[in-house]
Design brief:
Length: 242
């Protein structure tokens, strides 16, 4: 996979899968622009960090403009910024709680993809990878907000793929399973929860951020030029049992 001198925007770049995507791309000699609510912690001459909320449309447009001003073009986008749900049955969720999860996970993905797509359309080339979740299609109690947000990411990915296919831009999503990241650390650090979760995974272990970033890099690379609108499970086989 050739990433030398290519340019990628990664949201959620401060933690977990987003950070791992940044590190893998930098190791492959790409230029990476990270966007996160938090301050950047990656030190590399080829890394630029912007503190921004994926819901702040104006700021996101400025980040994209700054990326193009610096590098001239954008080869790919990884939408990894996201939050977990409120962990309640849907009938106990306030509209505010519901909207927060839907906004960040779904509208945030739309907002960044929209800003980047305009650049890619002009170049007639590009890759967009949206991080969805196994919970977009396999459900559990107390997950209506999160499942709705990720179901929308999956279906939106396919619809975006159709809109962008005429411009040689491929849009795919990855559906991770149980991954040990900042989002899940607190629960997986509990040995009982970890053992219960690992018992559900055919591969027998939790995923690590690198298990996901390697799939993302495949979808960003030329190797996947004929793949668009797909959701790729990266869950150690969890979805096979549904
Ligand atoms: N960890 C899992 O088991 C798992 C499984 C399936 C899917 N996912 C999804 O993978 C993606 C990455 O999650 P992770 O596990 O690496 O989480 P994480 O919490 O480790 O990282 C998420 C990053 O997104 C950033 N972020 C959150 N809201 C933001 C906003 N409004 N604007 C900009 N940045 C924002 C956070 O600051 C953080 O750095 C998320 O979309 C998550 O829903 C996670």
């Amino acid at each position: 996979m050739d990433f030398e001198n290519k340019v990628y925007i990664v949201t959620g770049s401060c933690s977990g899968m987003g950070r791992s995507c940044c590190m893998k791309l930098l190791e492959a000699h790409a230029c990476v622009v990270g966007i996160d609510l938090n301050e950047g912690t990656i030190e590399n001459d080829c890394y630029t960090h912007f503190i921004a909320d994926v819901l702040d449309e104006k700021k996101i447009e400025e980040c994209v403009e700054a990326t193009v001003a610096r590098y001239g073009h954008i080869d790919g986008l990884v939408n990894a910024a996201g939050v977990f749900g409120n962990n309640k049955p849907f009938y106990e969720l306030s509209t505010e709680e519901w909207n927060r999860v839907l906004s960040i996970n779904t509208t945030g993905t739309f907002t960044v993809a929209k800003a980047v797509a305009k650049e890619m359309i002009a170049n007639k080339k590009g890759k967009i990878v949206n991080i969805s979740c196994i919970r977009s299609t396999i459900f559990k109690q107390n997950m209506a907000d999160y499942a709705a947000s990720k179901g929308a990411v999956t279906s939106m990915t396919s619809a975006m793929a159709l809109d962008l296919a005429p411009y040689n831009i491929q849009v795919n999503s990855v559906a991770p399973g149980f991954i040990y990241t900042g989002m899940t650390k607190a629960s997986f650090d509990n040995p009982e929860v970890r053992a219960q979760s690992e018992a559900l995974i055919p591969n027998g272990r939790l995923g690590m951020p690198e298990d996901i970033s390697s799939v993302v890099l495949f979808l960003l690379s030329d190797l996947s030029d004929y793949v668009t609108g797909s959701m790729l499970f990266a869950d150690g086989g969890y979805h096979l049992q549904k």
